[in-house]
Amino acid sequence: MEFVIGLVVVAFVTWLLARSRSGASDKPPAGPPTASHFRAEIDSAVQRDHARAASSGELRKVERKPTSEHVPPPPSSHAVEAWSPRTQQLEVAGEWYRAESLRELFERHARISETGSEIHLPAVLVPDATNPYDKRAVAVFVDGLHVGYMERPDAARYHGPIADLEGRQIRVASRQWLRGTSQETWARVTLSLPRPEHLACPNPLATNCVSLPTGSTVQVTREEEHMEHLSALLGHFGNETVLAATLRSVTEQRPRSTVELVAVDIDGHQVGVLSPTQTANFLPLVRRAEAEGREVICRASLRGNSLKADVALHARKAHEFDDETLERLFC
Question: Above pLDDT 70, what percent of the chain?
Answer without folding.
Answer: 78
